[in-house]
Amino acid sequence: MNNMTLYVKKDSPVHLVDPLTKLLFTFFSITLTYIVSNHLAVLLILLCTFTILVAGKVFKYILPVIGVSFLLILSIIIVQGFFHPDRETLLFEVGPIPIYKEGFSIAFLITLRVVNMVSAFGVLILTTKPDDLVNALLRKGLSPRFGYVLLSVLQIIPQMIALTGKITDAQRARGMETEGGLWLRFKSFIPLLGPVILNSLNETRERSIALEIRGFNAKGPRTYLHKHETYRYGLHLKILLTVIFVAVVVWRFVS
Amino acid sequence: MSVLTVTNLKYRYPAQDKSIFALNDLSFTVGKGEFIGIVGRNTAGKTTLCYALSGLVPHFFKGAYGGDVHIGVMDVLSYEISDIAAKVGLVFENPFSQMTGAKFTVYDEIAFGLENLGIPREEMHERIRASMQLLDIEGLGNKNPFSLSGGQMQRVAIASVIAMKPDILILDEPTSQLDPEGAEEVFRVVGKMAEGGMTIIMVEQKMEKLAAYADRILLMHDGKLIQDGKPAEVFSRDDLELYGVEPPMVVKVSRTLQVRNEETGLYPITQKEMPAELDIAFHVVETSGKNTNTTSEIVVRNLHFGYENGNDVIRGLNVSLQGEPIAIIGQNGAGKTTFVKLLKALLTPQRGEIVIDGVRSTDSTAAKLASRIGLIFQNPNDQIFKNKVIDEVMFGPLNIGQSPEVATENAKAMLELVGLAGKEEENPYDLSLAERKMVAMASILAMDTDIVIFDEPTMGQDYSGKSKVKEIIHSLYEQGKLVICILHDMDFVADTFGRTIIFSEGGMVFDGPTREAFAQEDALRAARVEQPHLTQLARKLGYEGIILKENELQTANMFE
Ligand SMILES: Nc1ncnc2c1ncn2[C@@H]1O[C@H](COP(=O)(O)OP(=O)(O)OP(=O)(O)O)[C@@H](O)[C@H]1O
Ligand SMILES: [Mg+2]
Fold first, then answer.
1. Which residues of B touch A220 (CB under 8 A)?
2. Residues A208 and A150 in one domain
3. What is the CATH code for B2-245?
4. How far, in whole angstroms, is CA B209 from its chain's centroid?
5. Does A81 lie in the same domain as A145?
6. Is ligand 1 within 6 A of the CB of residue B333?
7. What is the whole-number distance in angstroms between the Cα of residue B183 and the centre of ligand 1?
8. How far apart are CA B137 and CA B332, in angstroms?
9. Complex ipTM value
């Protein structure tokens, strides 16, 4: 996390795609999984997203995130499988809890959607520099204030990691044990929470002063340090994505 | 025509007592191309004045506001910060707060303000390169702004504002973390910009430099303007110390010798103005070695460390630290902070070992070492994480097993020692940077460790703050503790430390008595530090040796 971003620097065709196309992809990919309710279709979309991650050479970076959301997923399966109102066909039992097919089927669908959502965001965030994304949006006329709010949202995770590291250092420098077994680490996590939240609020305030004083909210025309590399296939890709999106929507409501 | 007019400016922070004003009825004007220095003790209101001149007060910091600030024809109250930012540049006291977090390389960070101003791309590149060259950070363009040393970050902060070429440039203690040569460089650059028509307003504790570069000095105290005059006039005041300002060394010497300019009756304020023939003698007073307290011992063998692979920051260090207080000096980014973090086991050596009183640091953890070795961080914001001063100071003592009663007592005593008695219940974030640094110091001292390491304790401190630090260091040594201190203030080093280590590029270029250290001209140059002002003055007056302390000067009238 040396760079304070989630962006992974790699040489890949996905990295070359312009931020807005990727943003469009992320948006379409996520909404489509909610528009269609067919397992196979959602699975297909997920496979597409995975393929893009692989092509972007960042697939392995998304695995831990999926891993973390696995806990969430597991609880969805149990809750839906057990409590879903149309309990008819018993599928299997987890210990004493019976899991019914109807509920499981829905839980499975939700799982696919969640994994796809995480991965689609992965495509955007892992292969796009956050400042490139914000600049691309500013160029399209987004207000700077909104642009930097978006940036700080994108930066929440790395910012929290950096802050946690800093506070852990401050704490262990003054005798709080943070190194050692899992339990110890877990125990030391709790006194971290308060300071991390407190400090991040303060940092956010400081950053906003820093932005103000450098005129980020200026009304005049702004310029950009880096040339806007117009991605050759940007328009084609955008059209393609829109066509697919519209096609799926039409298919969904006609059939 | 004046570019800046301040009339009856009054301001009170929202959280402040009704009777206290951070700025209390200030009036002055500044002409184009003037270089104004602002001096005064730590709570005088200098930083608040900087905020008021750049529009942060009253637009960002609300509170009670009265009077009027005009920038050219623009009145600060009715324009927005973004309009003001195009004309007025502000360099913050703490460079860490200046980083926008919106950019991921130093180069892009400097570009940020220029993009907002709408500067054409070609010119942008030109300005960035020029300002990086002025601040000597050309090699850092691709680094992340947050993985820089304190001094490097301060350089980036200055470069990012200079590149915007504001009409008025406000700098709040811009050289507090710079190595001596870097500080001189900043003054030279800024002085040149003033000649080119930029108006400079600079808060500083380095009086020598202000004396040499400023056109006018504003002396502030408790939010009021005490004097607005030429440097020679302000620095010739005999009550300067009352306002927490230590006059330049030349003035101190002139005071004792009663050397005055015949026409004006003022003291000379720079070495250049000092007459070469003076009724003065020098004699070296050896104090080091007199005290032979035994302290803890740190032995470092063949130490190697780097943040990134293949890029060592510490390159094969061997040293034994024990006995009298030790000063570490050296250029920004030399690896001083990295070194002390290794000693404290916050970083793990890649090769070599650190042995503290016979125990290898790698066999212990930072937490276990906490009761033995205390480190006061360079940036207090990295150290402070509680929202009440007293809780912050008690955190360490409680962790290392002091009972709540003892810890409270210790904490109160230490806050008293650093001059913060009565601020126990305040939120550290509402305190000034200098006060926060003191909170950080108290919170380590309260742990009563055998070894105390200070990372730039004099940063941002005024006269009385520095004297306090000096006393603390002496008394720690008297209690038999090992004191190690990283510093950029050579006068302070000369006055306080018997042993000095000169760091340069991850290694030591000298380790020995301070008097010898300041005789090593090549090593000093390599490490981009300079001799103490007193030493330079004695040289100028024809003394060949190294003079470190004021009691080494003898004047004829002292014998009368
Ligand atoms: N977290 C980090 N990640 C990567 N590089 C770092 C990090 N911290 C410091 N560095 C680099 O290591 C080198 C030494 O930094 P260090 O902070 O030890 O310098 P220093 O001597 O304390 O300087 P200063 O006088 O400016 O405080 C610098 O080149 C700096 O850019
Ligand atoms: Mg340092």
1. 117-118
2. yes
3. 3.40.50.300
4. 13
5. no
6. yes
7. 18
8. 10
9. 0.87
Residue A124 and residue A139 in one domain: no
Structural domain total, chain A: 2
Between 2.30.40.10, 2.40.50.140, 3.100.10.20, 3.40.50.300, what CATH number should domain B298-372+449-551 receive? 3.40.50.300
Total-model pTM: 0.91
Residue whose CA lies nearest to ligand 1 atom number 1: B147
Lookup: tokens for A183: 């339990």
What domain range includes position A162? 135-213
Residues of B in contact with A172 (CB under 8 A): 346, 365-367, 370
Query: Is A213 within 8 Å of B375 when comparing Cβ atoms?
Result: no
The structural domains of chain B, with segments of one domain joined by +, span 2-245, 298-372+449-551, 384-447
Per-residue pLDDT tens over the stretch A48-59: 999 999 999 999
CB contact (8 A) between residue B118 and residue A218 = yes
Name the residue with the closest Cα to ligand 1, atom 19: B333
Distance B23 CA to ligand 2 centre (A): 33
Tens of pLDDT, residue by residue over B178-230, are: 999 999 999 999 999 999 999 999 999 999 999 999 999 999 999 999 999 99
- d(CA B365, nearest CA chain A) in Å: 7
Strand-pair partners of B321? B298
A122 and A142 housed in the same domain: no
Do A124 and A234 fall into the same domain? yes
Question: Touching check for B120 and chain A: CB below 8 Å?
Answer: yes
Residue B14 burial (C-beta neighbours within 10 Å; 0-12, 13-18, 19+): exposed
